[in-house]
Amino acid sequence: MRKLHFKCLITALAIGLFLQSFYPMLNRHINVAALQLENNIIMANSTTKSIETNSANSECGLTISAKSAYLMDFDTQTCMFEKNSNEKLPIASMCKIMTLLLTFEGVERGVLSENERITVSEHAASMGGSQAFLRANEDYLVSDLIKSIVIASANDSCVALAERISGSVDVFVKEMNEKALSLGMKDTVFQNCTGLPKPGQFSTAKDVAIMLSALLNHSQYYNYSQIWMDEMPHKDGTHTELANTNKLVRFYDGCDGGKTGYTQEAKFCLAATAKRGDLRLISVIIGAESGKTRFKESSELLSYGFAQFVNEKVVSEETVLEEATVRGGKDKTVCVKAQHDVFCLVKRGEKPLIQTTLDLQDVQAPIKAGTTIGTLSVYKEGVLIKEVPVVAANDVPKRTVKDILEEIFRNFPLKKEK
Questions:
Q1: In whole angstroms, what is the distance from residue 295 CA to residue 388 CA?
Q2: How far apart are CA 75 and CA 377, in angstroms?
Q3: Residues carrying an active site annotation
Q4: Do the Cβ atoms of 163 and 124 come closer than 8 Å?
Q5: pLDDT digits (tens, 9 = 90+) for 162-175
């Protein structure tokens, strides 16, 4: 009789382990189907209207005189307005957005530190145009160089940083172009890191918006972009006064960043960003006839966006989406949540059909909280607009042989022979 009980236990153990390897996959597809069905039911009565991109001087009421313009939502990169947005034009100092992007990436990689000092070369100190009046062979804090670029569009500081990061300006410019391609900026070519006039250098309003969007992902940028006035100190005790060239930082509600540009060829340019509530917008103006016009038309673009659109939260990062089955874990399931809040851009007063689907990987213990274990896809009117990683909300240790045997003995207790 004892041998029979033992054989039953071994058989049960084998069957349990066999089924355990297939259950997560089955459960995953069942959960996705259930989520789809639930979303279809919830959104079935919604009005099915999509956001339409407004072109130049259209029914939206905007009249933009600049050569090119673009307005988009930062979170989804949805275009809200455009005028000649793919026309290749000189963009002057808006090129420095890419210089700053590579600088902050260098800081994050550890290639550069904001607290280190850089010795300025003769070449960097010789730059004309907007400058911080750096002294050749004098060393400056990286943070001060960044500040002078963001606030005062300093060409000399751009060259000093380019030489420090890449060894030479030529190599740095090559990296600028490589980064542009990786961001999908197909209509952009950089010839220098300053935006000073040079043949063959151009971009588009749409590409500039994409470029600024990438820069805005670096939180350190905001430490500099909202400064209105400051100074660049020199070793002899003197300093260069710095005043922010982007007047919207002070005079437009919610504006906390951007970059101006001007040359005779490019005329007056401005890329700006503003945030109100959960909605962050990016506007780009290229080729305005005056500085006053670029600020006015950029403000009008931003105000139009805030008036007409809203970012609705689809999923909160705090919400447990479901419990995924864990193979080989002490716990049989792990809570799953979105890596961050998920928003969807909609026109005010409209309720488009929004659906989500959840695709989970096979989950094998051990699992650490924060581990990516799948993808949440968001659809608007049947069109995929976003994919967000989903992560484990808690740890799940690996299940041991002892854990398995204890569970089996609890489920199949041995009976004493009489």
A1: 35
A2: 15
A3: 93, 96, 153
A4: yes
A5: 999 999 999 999 99
